[in-house]
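INFO batch 0412 | record 1 of 1 | parsing
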Amino acid sequence: MSVVTPEVLQEERRAKRFTLISVALNLFFIAIAGTWLARSYFAPPAVVTVTIDRSAGARIERIAQTLPPADAAIMRAAYRDNAAVLDASRAEVDRAVADIKQSFRAEPYNIDTTRKAMADARINHSRFIELLHEEIASAAAKMSLAGRAKLAEYSSARVTIKPDR
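INFO prediction complete | emitting tokens
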């Protein structure tokens, strides 16, 4: 008959505890790995594509949203007074960009056609920006000091875009 000493019982308890802790730790790591795989499989892509409306009306509206209400109304009214001219100018920019894209697709490719299309796009874009700036300046002449201060702080580079999530 074998005699069980307290040291042997103590060793068996340690082995059982170690096994239990080891199994629990392994299950924990398996759960982490499974969660990581599931999140990478089911999660939407990390890159969010946001299309910004670059029309004159949308640009004026983004500026007007940062202004006090009375000054925003002045900005919107200035746009409404010349909307046809500004929208036509923006349409010319869009047409020029389409010409650039078409010149890239042409077969055989002609670099001179692309250069001419790019030069036309630059001219049209400069004309559009000049008209837009003129409308903003004429609206600013009618605004309050607080509205002009807000207008001075505005930067299109700081527009916050909230993705749909």
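INFO post-check: The chain has a mean pLDDT of 87.
INFO record closed
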